[in-house]
Amino acid sequence: MTIDRSALGFGDVALAVYASDPWTSRGRLYPEPDSLTRSPFQRDRDRIIHTTAFRRLKHKTQVFIAQDGDHYRTRLTHTIEVAQVARSLARALRLDEDLAEGVALVHDFGHTPFGHTGEDALHEKMADYGGFDHNAQSLRIVTSLERRYAEFDGINLTWEALEGLVKHNGPLQTADGEGLGGPVPQPIIDYSRRHDLWLSTHASLEAQVAAIADDIAYNTHDIDDGLRSGYLTYEMLEEVPFLAGLMREVHDRYPDLEAARFTNEIMRRQITAMVEDVIGVTQANLREAQPGSADDVRLSGRTLATFSPEMAEIDRQIKKLLFGHIYRHPDIMKIRAGAAQIVSELFDAYFADPELMGSHPWTDGVEALTAAQRARHVADYLAGMTDTYAEKTHRQLFDHTPELR
């Protein structure tokens, strides 16, 4: 039976001229025929969801480790929340929702076990071998380390999805090729030599909304998780006038509301205020910049999807609150020290004896590898671990494993 593609609903929402058009994508490193039932960006999103890396996010730390309770966010639930916010922003701004969602879904693939603690420990171990960067690791996963397809390594995402992955926080280098804010991670440079990702320009607006959706999501859910854990109290939220105002609004309307509902009413108002702020500011920036294409967005010289100055200050105050009461809390710092020990000691063990990685395919021919190549293989293996697997493996190799609780 022949499929009538015109009846499938493609293009139901008229995209803005500055949106990324899936039908004029710069394509994939390995050319593939188009799907009859999905746009290229829809296929990207679907491929991302079906990866092993996506499933592993279920058991990777956001802030609180798995033993703390079932209701705290993991990297997976955080990622889903970011994707929801990114899609809402994309719809309001008439962008390609599938590309925005795909960039949001893939943005944390490269995170190590134990969140930023694991990344810091692995970066320190890799200092003599090019360092470790979770964005660069995400790129390695989707272009090399996922092995699902017969004809290529990785999942062969479109240029736009890969560009959004590596540049969602802005350009990585100057027009002369010098790194912005430090050297560009080598894995990104290596891939861009094969499939030029325009490292000196901004990313598409879809990638920009995915990036700011990340800020909105974790600012909100880390407060929610902080209140649940007891590290935050409603009195502490008074330190941020914006949050104090939301609490007064909810209390005035619902004076006898139970704590769980009270928290949720605050959080939903916080998300709404931040999302609406981004939409309004981005619309104003677009009216000023007048981009006539997605490439005009890339070449505009600035990020167009941003907070207003007032909301940016609120964002700063919320981050200060979270760092002061949660991220740097003595209990959390003790757990972080134990997690860093686990990652560091596993690296040393695997580097000294790669056979400890068992049947891992990267151990083949290890004798022929340089020290840098061996270190990168170990980093790939470690970064792919979940919290639970890293802790379990450490217990098998060492007599004393830190208690992460």
Element layout with pairings:
Blueprint lengths: L39 H10 L2 H5 L18 H18 L4 H10 L8 H11 L8 H12 L13 H9 L18 H9 L10 H25 L4 H4 L3 H13 L5 H31 L4 H5 L10 H19 L2 H23 L18 H13 L3 H11 L8
Helix pairs in contact: 1-4, 3-4, 3-9, 4-7, 4-9, 5-15, 6-8, 9-12, 9-14, 11-12, 15-16, 15-17
InterPro entries: dGTPase, dGTPase-like, dNTPase_2, HD/PDEase_dom, HD_domain, PHydrolase_assoc_dom
Protein name: Deoxyguanosinetriphosphate triphosphohydrolase-like protein
Organism: Martelella lutilitoris
Write a brief caption for the model.
The protein is 56% helix and 0% strand. By secondary structure, the chain is mainly alpha-helical.
Describe this structure in words.
This is Deoxyguanosinetriphosphate triphosphohydrolase-like protein. The chain is mostly helical. The protein is 56% helix and 0% strand. It has helices spanning 40-49, 52-56, 75-92, 97-106, 115-125, 134-145, 159-167, 186-194, 205-229, 234-237, 241-253, 259-289, 294-298, 309-327, 330-352, 371-383, 387-397. It is globular and about 70 Å long. The termini are far apart. The model has no long low-confidence stretch (mean pLDDT 91).
Features:
0% strand, globular, HD/PDEase_dom, dGTPase-like, Deoxyguanosinetriphosphate triphosphohydrolase-like protein, 405 residues, single chain, mainly alpha
Order of helices and strands: HHHHHHHHHHHHHHHHH
The tally of helices reads 17
Name the overall outline: globular
DSSP, total strands: 0
Oligomer: single chain
Please tell me how large the radius of gyration is.
Answer: 22 Å
Low-confidence sequence ranges: none
Q: Percent of residues in beta strands?
A: under 5%
- Cα separation of the termini: 58 Å
**What structural class do the secondary elements suggest?**
mainly alpha
Mean pLDDT: 91
Helix content: 55-70%
Largest sheet: none
